[in-house]
Amino acid sequence: MSPESLSVETRRLPGAMPAWIAAVDVQSWRECAQTVAAADGRLVALWASDRRDLDGGFEISCALAMDAGLLCLRLPLPVQSPCFPGIADLFPAAGRMQRATHDLVGVVPLDARDTRAWLRHGAWPSDVYPLRRDFVARNVFTPAPDTYPFVSVAGEGVHEIPVGPVHAGIIEPGHFRFSVVGERVMRLEEHLGYTHKGIEKRFEALDLMAGARLAGRVSGDSTVAYAWAYSMALEAACGATLPERAAWLRALLLERERVANHLGDLGFLGNDAGLAFGLAQFSRLKEDWLRMHARLFGHRYLMDVIVPGGVARDLQIDALADLRESMSELEVEVRTLRGIYDEHSGLQDRFLGCGVVTPALAGKLGLTGLAARASAVSRDLRVDHPCIPWDTLGVRMCTAKEGDVAARVAVRFDEVLESLRLQRQILERIPEGPVIGELAEPPAGAFGFGWVEGWRGEVLVALEAGPDGRIRRCHAHDPSWQNWPLLEHAVIGNIVPDFPLINKSFNLSYSGVDL
User: Fold this and answer.
1) Is 432 part of a structural domain of the chain?
2) I want to staple 354 with a disulfide (CB 3.0 to 4.6 A). Which of 58, 332, 405, 474 is the partner?
3) Same domain, 368 and 263
């Protein structure tokens, strides 16, 4: 569908990705959402803003994906009783996002089925909203008890197993409440939000150029995707055109980030299924890959390489041979290890049929990224809405249909090999020219979107400029918002010892859903 098919007036936004924006009222908010849902569109992000200093109220916004591109609906809300019609019945992924808008801004969805606090954990009083404009970030509150009302499952032989929020390993905190009969999982309920860092509030204290560094630290394993999405949003707000060589270098960096994360996950997936050899080998390969990043781009995880207007470091011609050689060596090793994984009966016994997400459920609940592609949901921004250089590279989407751990492993292997092919093309075809351009300061109120297919899925940044080159509002959205609820479904019917394996096959971000 296209914006012209909607009942509201839309305005095309400048930028590398096709995007439109529309100011709506309460009725057209629901009507537009229903129209997009009926056309198999999906929710990308939902967030709230405090605009009392501008026009006397609040605002709820959502970004919806259509065939033509991205549609942003903006609904103004009154100061008193700022409520809006919820859309979780149309897009189930909206449920937790709507709960977060209440926790952070005090904007309340009407007729919501789940009204439990999502992010609070007693960290601030119930009448304090940390994303309102008058909130003072230095405020310190006496913590209240964390009394989250988990759903109880009753019945003969049913037991509850609480896991977390503090874990034995060095990972971010999350609470997982299992209801089990024997070892079989009847229900899993997650409670996240223990890593709240005030990132969205911090954006408001920064100028537009400095925001890229913070965006790159929203979720450390996706720094390229977030920095590119933020820079894309700012460049759109400025009406700037990215130098062509910079666009090709950004694509190279994004693909290298994709490979690094897949290598790490493939190693841990082998380890979680009892093959420590897999962890040792893939850890070695990832380490070599990251050392190449440090040598050529100045940072193992590529932080601060992508900046608004282009990239901070060019790729020198004498590095091309090293890159090609390392990619050739990696491809040989990955193909060899894939053969070992595919033929290892112990691994396949653990992978096959474990943690299944059916294509129907994936489509209904809005699964995204590599996990969606492993459940036959064919979506990839590099294919669906290709910008430079994806529009000339011919990206081959990697998919599977089984939706189990084995399928998610297979998609990772396929994407590593496809990414290496794309990187070779980039090195062969990258144009000469400048790697950074000038950005004019956008006027206050200028708005832009960045939308990038990160290794985990779609990363979105919505950016609004304030006066004097400052950030008024920046919302960064991680694909884990959509995918965490699917993990709860994927675990049902499996045994408790399979949870680490299923969890790692998704490898979702805690930090990315708790800004």
Assistant:
1) yes
2) 405
3) yes
The answer to whether 488 and 190 are in contact (CB under 8 A) is yes
Residues 207, 97, single domain; the answer is no
C-alpha to C-alpha distance for 347 and 405, rounded to whole angstroms: 10
- What tokens appear for 37 in the block? 């849902």
For residue 187, being part of any structural domain is answered with: no
What span, in angstroms and rounded, lies between the C-alpha atoms of 483 and 13? 28
What is the Cβ-side half-sphere exposure of residue 410, based on CA atoms within 13 angstroms?
21
328-343 pLDDT, tens per residue? 999 999 999 999 999 9
CA distances in angstroms from 24 to 68, 354, 376, listed in the order given: 19, 44, 34
Number of domains in the chain: 2
Question: Among the three residues 87, 110, 133, which one is the final residue of a domain in this structure?
Answer: 110
Instruction: State the Cα–Cα distance between residues 208 and 204, nearest whole angstrom.
Output: 9
CATH number for the domain including 92?
Answer: 3.30.460.80
Determine the 3-state secondary structure of 211 from DSSP. Answer: helix
* Same domain as 456, residue 310: yes
pLDDT interval class at 75 (50, 70, 90): very high
Per-residue pLDDT at 74 exceeds 90: yes
Report which secondary-structure segment, H or E, holds 12: strand 11-13
Number of residues that make up the chain: 515
Are residue 71 and residue 220 in the same domain, yes or no?
A: no
Among 57, 85, 110, residue at a domain's last position: 110
Q: The CATH number of the domain where 469 resides is what?
A: 1.10.645.10
With respect to residue 504, please indicate whether it lies within any of the assigned structural domains: yes
Q: In this structure, which long-range contacts are made by residues 198-203, counting pairs with CB atoms below 8 Å and at least 24 apart in sequence?
A: 198/130, 198/137, 198/515, 199/476, 199/515, 200/104, 200/131, 200/474, 200/475, 200/476, 200/515, 201/130, 201/131, 201/135, 201/137, 202/137, 203/471, 203/473, 203/474
Q: Do 239 and 433 meet the contact criterion of CB atoms below 8 Å apart?
A: no
Asked if the structure places residue 170 within a domain, the reply is no
Per-residue model confidence as pLDDT tens digits over 370-410: 999 999 999 999 999 999 999 999 999 999 999 999 999 99
Average of per-residue pLDDT across 164-176: 84
Residues 96 and 213 in one domain: no
Q: List the domain range (segments joined by +) for residue 69.
A: 3-110
Other beta carbons within 10 angstroms of residue 436's beta carbon come to 17
Query: How far does Cα 108 stand from its chain's mean position?
Result: 24
- Mean local confidence (pLDDT), 457-483: 97
Task: Read off the pLDDT band of 349 (50, 70, 90).
Answer: very high
**Cα 500 to Cα 350: distance, rounded to the nearest angstrom:** 12
- Number of other residues whose CB lies within 10 A of the CB of residue 155: 8
Claim to verify: residue 263 and residue 395 sit in the same structural domain:
yes
b/e map 217-234, b = 16+ CB within 10 Å: ebbebbbbbbbbbbbbbb
